[in-house]
Amino acid sequence: MDSYSHRRLGARKKVLFADLPPAVVELGSGAGASMRYLEPGSRLVAIEPNPHTHDALRRNAARYGIDLEIRDDPAESTGLPSASVDAVISTLVLCTVEDPAASLAEVRRILRPGGRFVFIEHVGSGSGPIRAVQRLLRRPWRYVFDGCCLDRDTASSIAAAGFADVRIEPFRFGGVFVPVWPQISGVAVA
Ligand SMILES: C[S@@+](CC[C@H](N)C(=O)[O-])C[C@H]1O[C@@H](n2cnc3c(N)ncnc32)[C@H](O)[C@@H]1O
Would you say 34 and 89 are in contact if contact means Cβ atoms under 8 Å apart? Predict the structure, then answer.
């Protein structure tokens, strides 16, 4: 999945992550698919409650020269101090967290004023055949992909989370996984 994600999202991640500060918090880091886009020497605090991903995270941190701290807290309650972070990143995570609104409130809480939340997320389709496919596959998809919800309106959740400035760009993921074609990327400033 790492190389597939790299092929489909790599160019976008390069642009979005180009000017991140040297210390970053990441929600749901998984196996570390975003590490190759961080500057070598960057510090990454990975908020990743799934212990089965931690060995891969450490391997990728060594490979890409990342100074890694893993926290097994959930995105909804990271345990990090308020207003202590310059940037939070998240790729394909708000589809899976238990409570997206609480996770976004937590992102705002830990960001310093002016700090950035940089994201790429797949979202529910507003209409048309992809919406029908998402509705049809919602339950089995959630079962197979570890709680992943196909139909979340994550753009509205981010817009409603109280950030000072929000820029969201919808785009099409493409490829074989049609239910996750509708995606958004962007930056929300605390
Ligand atoms: C689809 S994977 C995405 C992984 C990685 N960000 C990527 O782009 O490949 C979703 C990740 O979110 C993590 N996750 C699930 N619930 C979470 C929560 N409440 N807080 C933080 N991470 C969570 C999962 O363990 C998983 O690693």
Answer: yes
